[in-house]
Amino acid sequence: xQTNTALLQSLGRHLEQTAEKREVSLEALTSRVLxxxxxxxxxxxxxxxRFEVRLEQGALEVLQVVTLVETPSESGEVxxxxxxxxxxxxxxxxxxxxxxxxxxxxxxxxxxxxxxSGLTIEKSGFVTPVLEAVREALxxxxxxDPVDEAVLLAMxxxxxxxxxxxxxxxxxxxxxxxxxxxxxxRLFKRFVVGRDLTRAELNELLERDxxxxxxSVELFVDLLSLDTLLLGLxxxxxxxxxAAERHDVDVPRVADRLARLGLDVRARTMNGRGWTNxxxxxxxxxxxxxxxVTAPYGEMTLENARGLDPSLxxxxxxxxxxxxxAHSLFEVM
Length: 333
Prior knowledge:
Layout: H1 6-9, H2 11-22, H3 26-45, E1 50-56, E2 59-69, E3 77-79, E4 94-98, H4 103-117, H5 127-138, H6 146-159, H7 162-165, E5 174-179, E6 184-192, H8 199-206, E7 216-224, H9 226-233, H10 239-246, H11 251-260, E8 263-264, E9 269-270, E10 273-274, E11 284-290, E12 299-301, H12 302-308, E13 317-321
Parallel strand pairs: 2-3, 11-12
Antiparallel strand pairs: 1-2, 2-4, 5-6, 6-7, 8-9, 9-10, 11-13
């Protein structure tokens, strides 16, 4: 379920092999693939930004083009005041920011250029549509393992709003994407303009007027926390069974796949550690087991707590990490 970027890093070689195998022009094939990538990137980030896509020494590069101006009014423009003073930048200067495919490099870039880029929130998801565009253009689009799809749906169901979770027809409008900044995942929902989202709301939220009625936009709606995931997986709603039925696979196969990723629902362990005895790496939430929740934060009913650990009793306190090193669970894009 992890995103494999090897194809992007050696795209030139794949283009040469595909062109030779199909007996087509390498130049034409390359242009078609790069155009598909450009379209995928622009669709993902929206019209407020400008990008350039190119091959550099056989590797795919996606660059954000930023133009410094006094008062931004066009796509890709950023206020000159955002540029570091030591740059001695001037209005009209153009910057090219290479968008990293790996999480560590993306973090480093965000620390240095977040004010100029503006892509901090959306960046984590762009690799997936780029990979899909490349594979489709090359004719190598891979079939998706239905067990992986069931695992992803089960995780998504744990954070969906109740009304959506009870409406299977709406499930496909939600997408769970890995958030490398927290090691968690963000829930996105696709809204249809004119049906789910008015044009006024679209302009207010995204400052976009380029999406026609019937077109769709994707918005961040929630963050999947570890406690939400764990409680959701063992809830009476039974997302594993619902997801397995949706993708026509057996529930044990879904549970086994999750266990191989480090999350064992049956044993209530993550990477071999009990759910209420996980290592605290950065921050945590502390819960007290109670018969009835009276405080909005910090309390959990006995029923829910025993879903995490059957040995817990009323009055016991335990911690769940807000951030987790189990990144493989959430690299679901």
